[in-house]
Amino acid sequence: MAKFDKIAVLDKIGSTGMVPVFYHKDAEVAKKVVKACYDGGVRAFEFTNRGDFAQEVFAEIVKFAAKECPDMAMGIGSIVDPATAALYIQLGANFVVGPLFNPEIAKVCNRRLVPYTPGCGSVSEVGFAQEVGCDLCKVFPGDVYGPNFVKGLMAPMAWSKLMVTGGVEPTKENLTAWIKAGVFCVGMGSKLFPKDKVAAEDWAYVTAKCAEALGYIAEARK
C-alpha cells in the first residue's frame, strides 16, 4: 500500500519540482542512488519498470526507503497497462508514471488514490487525461516538444499541471526554460546519473547534482 496519499505525493513533487528517473538491475546500487538523491533534497523518486525482475528490485528499494529516506515518495515509471500498475501499487508505489496515456490505468490508480501521470503528446491528450482524474500529466518526450509546447498549452489551460521528461538537463539554462514555460516539475534521468559516475559509485556527485538542479528550479520559480 502507498505510504503517502495523492495530495501528499503531489505536494512533494510540486514543492521540489524535480523527480529523478532511474533504473538499475542491482538493488544495492539502486538503494544508494535513492539515498544520494534524498541527501540532495529530492522527495519523489521514479524507478523505471525496465529490466527483468524490476518488480523485485522495486520491492527492495521501497522497504529501504521507508527506513533510510522516510520522507521519500517512491514511484514507478514506464507503466503501459493496468495489470502492471496494480502489481507495483501492491508493492508500495506512491505514484505511477507512463510514456503513454491509458485510461484503464487511471481506474486502477484512482481506486487507491494513487496519482497516475500519463505521457501526453497533444493538448487533446492532456485534456482527456485530466477528464479521468490525472492531476499531473507528463509531456514526453520533452526534447521533441520543447518549452514552447508547454507555454502554448498553458495559455488556454492554465490550471494544468505538467511534468516534462526526456532530454531535461541539470543546467541553469535548461531548467529555467522549462520552469518559465510553466511546468509543475521536471523528470530527469541519465543527465543526473552519468554511467561512469554510477559505475564508480560516486554518490557524492549525484547528491551534489541533485542539490544543484533543485537550486536552479527554486531560483527560476522566484
TrEMBL record:
Alphabetized UniProt keyword annotations: Carbohydrate metabolism, Lyase
Statement: the UniProt record of this protein carries the keyword Nucleus: no
UniProt keyword Lyase present: yes
Highest taxon of the lineage: Bacteria
Pfam families: Aldolase
CDD domains found in the cross-reference section: KDPG_aldolase (cd00452)
Protein name per UniProt: 2-dehydro-3-deoxyphosphogluconate aldolase/4-hydroxy-2-oxoglutarate aldolase
InterPro entries in the record: Aldlse_KDPG_KHG, Aldolase_TIM
Gene Ontology terms, MF aspect: lyase activity
Family indicated by similarity: Belongs to the KHG/KDPG aldolase family.
UniProt pathway: Carbohydrate acid metabolism
Species whose genome carries this gene: Bacteroides salyersiae CL02T12C01
Gene3D superfamilies: Aldolase class I
Subunit details: Homotrimer.
